[in-house]
Every structure is written in C-alpha cells, then in structure tokens.
Amino acid sequence: MKKLFILLALIVFSSIVIAGQGPEVIDLSKKFNVPKTTKKVVKFPHWFHQTKNQCTECHLDANGGKLKNIKKGGEFNPGVVKGTGNKVHKEFCWPCHKAKKVPRGKSCNKCHK
Ligand code: HEC
Ligand code: HEC
Ligand code: HEC
Fold it and tell me: What's the predicted TM-score (pTM) here?
C-alpha cells in the first residue's frame, strides 16, 4: 500500500514537472533588450500560452529556441524595440492575437501590467 502511494505520488510529481517547457513567465523587456521602457514591462505567460498554442506556432523548432516571425514567416528578429510600431507587436504578438480573436488581444493593459 505504501509503495503504491509512493508510486502514485511520483507519477503526479513528474506530470507537474513536464506541465510546461522552458521558463514559466518571461520578462520580455530583458529578453529583447528594450533600451528604454515607457510602458510597464511585459511578463509573458509562457506556460499559459503552451496550453493554448502549439510550440511551432511561435518557435521554428518544436523544442523551443528561435522564434518565428508570425507575420512574415522565417526567423523573428525584434530589432530595436521602441514605440508602439515595434516589431514585437506587429510581427509577433498581435498577428496571432488578431487571428485567434483573443479577447482584448491588442489592449495595452492586457500585456503591459
Ligand atoms: C499582446 C501583447 C501586447 C499588447 C496588447 C501591447 N503590447 Fe506593447 N509590447 C509588448 C511586448 C512583448 C513588448 C516588448 C517587451 C517590453 O517592452 O516589455 C512591447 C513593447 C512596447 C513598447 C516599447 C517599449 C516601451 O516600454 O516603451 C511600447 C511603447 C508599447 N509596447 C506600447 C504599447 C501600447 C501603446 C499598446 C496598446 C495600443 C501596447 N503596447 C499593447 C506586448 C504588447
Ligand atoms: C505564444 C508563443 C509561444 C509558444 C506557443 C511557446 N513558446 Fe517558448 N518562448 C516564447 C517566447 C516569446 C520566448 C522568449 C524568447 C526567447 O527565449 O527567445 C520563449 C522561450 C522558450 C524557451 C527558452 C529559450 C531560451 O533560450 O531561454 C524554451 C526552451 C521554449 N520557449 C520552449 C517552448 C516549447 C517546448 C513550447 C511548446 C511546448 C513553447 N516554447 C511554446 C514563445 C512561445
Ligand atoms: C501563436 C499565437 C499567440 C502568440 C504569438 C501570442 N499569443 Fe498571447 N494569447 C494567445 C491565445 C490563444 C490566448 C488565450 C485566449 C483565451 O483563451 O483567453 C492568449 C492570451 C494572452 C494573454 C492573457 C493571459 C491570461 O491569463 O488570460 C496575455 C497577457 C498574452 N496572451 C500576451 C502575449 C504576448 C505579450 C505575446 C507576444 C510576446 C503573445 N501573447 C503572443 C495566443 C498567442
């Protein structure tokens, strides 16, 4: 009985460990080296997105790594992230939120909070 309990506990524990891949939440102002932030920095809910999307919708490879340019295809390169016309909005986050009709998907305080 005790052994069975330990076995079950191990199964539950390991399924928690594989619940998400890569970091759970990512500070994208750091990741994309935003030179100067005028809005609240975006803490991207990475694991949450994994429950709603396939890895390859955002990454070139199913294991993660390089990001995909969702608007133009190929590799995403954010360049210098400045102003509302930045590439992170236009070529990565917004095209998918628009396509998937995410509620308030382009509202500033949905992401900058
Ligand atoms: C779907 C998510 C999302 C939405 C919606 C969004 N942004 Fe952003 N924005 C980002 C990300 C990600 C960055 C880059 C990381 C960071 O700056 O924290 C960024 C960067 C910026 C930057 C450049 C960095 C800075 O702080 O100056 C500005 C300006 C900006 N956003 C303004 C806006 C405005 C205005 C709106 C509403 C019209 C908006 N954003 C809506 C995700 C979003
Ligand atoms: C909605 C978009 C999105 C989805 C879906 C997504 N990721 Fe990510 N992922 C990102 C972003 C944005 C980053 C941060 C940018 C970066 O690290 O280059 C990231 C970072 C990562 C990293 C860290 C890379 C590093 O160098 O630190 C790994 C690993 C990763 N993702 C794996 C995955 C896997 C595996 C899946 C599917 C189970 C997945 N991601 C699904 C957007 C996504
Ligand atoms: C490949 C598609 C895709 C991309 C790319 C994407 N998102 Fe999303 N995002 C979604 C979906 C789908 C939802 C969930 C809609 C729902 O069911 O409520 C969502 C929801 C969110 C939410 C709300 C989370 C919550 O707790 O309700 C935030 C914040 C968000 N996204 C930020 C971002 C930021 C920042 C980026 C760019 C770095 C981004 N997303 C890129 C598909 C995407």
Answer: 0.92
**pLDDT tens, residue by residue, 100-113:** 999 999 999 999 99
Rounded to a whole number of angstroms, the distance between the first and last alpha carbons of the chain is 48
| Closest ligand 3 atom, residue 54 Cα | 1
Q: Give the Å distance between the CA of 23 and the centre of ligand 1.
A: 20
Q: Where are the alpha helices (DSSP H) in the chain?
A: 2-17, 28-31, 46-52, 55-58, 87, 94-99, 108-111
Ligand 3 — pocket residues by CB below 6 A? 28, 42, 44-45, 48-49, 52-53, 57-58, 70, 92-93, 96-97, 100, 102-103, 110-111
| Residues of the chain predicted below pLDDT 50 | 14-17
- φ/ψ of 65, rounded to 5, equals 80, -140
